[in-house]
Amino acid sequence: MRLHRAWFIAGITFVTLIAAAAFRSTTGVMLVPLESEFGWTRDLTSLAVSLNLLMYGLTAPFAASLMERFSMRRIVPMALTLVAIGTGLTTIMTKSWQLVVLWGLLVGFGTGCLALVFGAIVANRWFAHRRGLVTGVFSAAYATGGLVFLPLIGYMVTHHGWRSASTTVAIFAALLVPITYAMLRDRPSDVGLLPYGATEEPPAGVAAPATARGTVQVLWEAMHSLPFWVLAITFFVCGWSTNGLIGAHFVSAAHDHGMPLQTAASLLAIVGIFDFMGTIASGWLSDRVSSVWLLFSYYGLRGLALLTVPSVLGPSVKWPLLFFIVFYGLDWIATVPPTVQLCRQHFGLARSGVVYGWVFAWHMIGASIAAIFAGAIRQTHGSYTIAWYTAATLCIFAALLVLTLNKMPDLAQREARAATSA
After folding, report:
1. Terminus-to-terminus CA distance in the chain, angstroms?
2. Cβ atoms within 10 A of the Cβ of 244, count?
3. Is the whole model's pTM more than 0.85, yes or no?
4. In sequence order, which residues have a C-beta less than 8 Å from that of residue 252 and are 6 or more positions away?
């Protein structure tokens, strides 16, 4: 029996998501070396990271429309080209504004086009069955790529300088350009197939927008729906407590406690390894268990874990810190599959990619604010303690907020009520 082509497309998407996340994660390891070489402050480097995260998030919903209009096959290689240019040019920068433009704008926009919205679109188009599992695999790729490659990047920064790491990322991005163009296809119908698990072309509902105006229109319509705001606010907290705080500042925070940079980067790699398992498991569970209760568990446990950080960080790796790393890894991006699933339930299959893009934008807005907030806290107080406790409080709030979705009808229920009343 031949393997369905959907799995080959999923494999290409998996590799691209890993690469994109790895490209963006280089910023967290390079903060200290850049500050040492150029004399820049943590506030300034945090600004570049914050803009990177913000552009990454705000690009996502428009990337969905770009892929609808121009095809994934064109947009993905274009995005990889921007990443290669942005990271490559950092090796010759001399001014702080150049860091902000290259990291914040070019790399932010390029990786934004390769965000989890890309993965959600592939899962929606190519899979009728196993969507939750595939979304979980893509989510794991996103998080794992950003963390597992950190030891390698940290090693290169420590032993060969930060420019060698930037050059390596640029070359890798450039190599992926022809590969993705040659192998990606937009829809199963492009090659005469049905989505995996489908016996007929599945109904997609209202078509996704193919223009920027249409993308904004989807946002405007979604903003009149309470489920959108619950998903947006809780994902805002998700971004705050992962990319914005742990992803951007954990290495620096551990370094403040006397831990070597490479050791701290290796701990984040362990987070990535366990996230790979946790997020795939979350995708499997989202096909079987209420997504609302999954999110309640993830946010609540994450908040409790963050409360322990100030007491477990130190110059060496001890069991309490290792336990936090493993636990946080299992929970890192486990929120993505149930959030995508809830977007499908409340907004329909075809539009769920764009709606999730806007929800994901809130994720990265939260990450962006957290990156600046944590940097400012460190600059003014000399430690990250307030930042850890703030994130913990927000996570517990998100856990309680998501429960309100149990009282809100999804799209199928609303359509059934409309048909009954008619």
Report:
1. 48
2. 30
3. no
4. 28, 31, 32, 42, 378
Distance (Å, rounded) from C-alpha 35 to C-alpha 40? 5
Q: Which domain holds residue 214?
A: 5-187+208-406
Here the contacts of 194-201 (C-beta below 8 Å, separation 24 or greater) are 194/128, 195/6, 195/125, 195/126, 195/127, 195/128, 196/4, 196/6, 196/7, 196/126, 196/127, 196/128, 196/129, 196/130, 197/127, 197/128, 197/129, 197/130, 198/128, 198/129
Q: What are the backbone dihedrals phi and psi of residue 94, each rounded to the nearest 5 degrees, phi first?
A: -135, -15
Tokens linked to 160: 């060969």
Length reported for the chain: 422
Number of other CB atoms surrounding residue 315 within 10 Å: 12
Could you give the 3-state DSSP secondary structure of residue 127?
A: strand
CB contact at 8 A, 58 and 112: yes
Q: Quick check: is 416 in a domain?
A: no
Write out pLDDT tens, residues 296-339: 999 999 999 999 998 888 888 888 898 888 888 888 778 988 99
The Cα 49–Cα 166 span in angstroms is 15
Tokens encoding 419: 């048909």
What would the pLDDT profile of 76-101 be if each residue is shown by its tens digit? 999 999 988 988 898 899 888 888 88
CA neighbor of 50 nearest in space, from 369, 407, 330 = 369
The token pair at 244 is: 């914005």
CATH of residue 88's domain is 1.20.1250.20
C-alpha–C-alpha distance, residues 320 and 308, integer Å: 9
Contact 201, 93 (CB under 8 A): no
Name the one residue in this structure whose structure tokens are 């552009």: 55
Judge whether 202 lies within some domain: no
Between CA 43 and CA 36 the distance in angstroms is 14
